[in-house]
Amino acid sequence: MGNLLHYAIVFLVVALVAALFGFGGVAGTAMEGARLLFWVAIVLFVIALVGNFVRRV
After folding, report:
1. 23 burial level (CB within 10 Å; 0-12, 13-18, 19+)
2. In CA terms, which of 14, 26, 27, 54 is 20 to 30 Å from 8?
3. What angle, rounded to 10 degrees, do the helices at 2-20 and 24-56 form?
4. What's the pTM value of the predicted model, to 2 decimals?
5. Collapsed DSSP state (helix, strand, coil) of residue 12
């Protein structure tokens, strides 16, 4: 899951650099990719947390 957050940050940096240089389409696409990877990482974290809690009980 750490890799997902790493790639989300990479996409965010790419989006910021693309926006800085005026590439709006690339910036929007990279931002959506970063947002998607971030939410996938959050969902997987919650699933792992619940699974760990259920396994201990």
Report:
1. middle
2. 54
3. 160
4. 0.77
5. helix
Which pair of structure tokens corresponds to residue 49? 């947390």
Q: How confident is the model at residue 3 (pLDDT cuts 50, 70, 90)?
A: confident
Give the 3-state secondary structure of 24-56. Answer: HHHHHHHHHHHHHHHHHHHHHHHHHHHHHHHHH
pLDDT at 45 over 70: yes
Rg (CA), the chain: 15
- The mean pLDDT value of the chain amounts to 90
